Amino acid sequence: MTQSTGDTPHVFPPASEAMLQWWNPQLIQGPMPLVRMQFAWLESLAEAMQFEAKCLRALAESGERMAGCYREEADPQALQACYQRLMQDVARTHWQRLEKVTELSEDFRKRLWEEI
User: Fold this and answer.
1) What is the pLDDT of residues 58-75, one digit of tens each?
2) Domain boundary assignment for the chain
């Protein structure tokens, strides 16, 4: 067991006001870089989700236009032309999506370096 003496060597002295004033900003600053990095990640994620929603909307509109082509076009040549236009639109949307993905990655890296 431990011996109890009048003066225990492990008792910390009371904190002074100056020490608390110095320590409080240090304590708050500790997790801030992680919070800023998480905020940058969440901003990038929000941008990616918004762009994905735009892509999905464009694909839905293409499908709607394709259904219109089937209803309106009886001629196989006209149907093929309509289909080709729609596929070009879908391909363009997909390429824009891929370009945006690379931009988001670069933007995310830039934001992280700004926060670090």
Assistant:
1) 889 988 888 888 887 678
2) 33-115
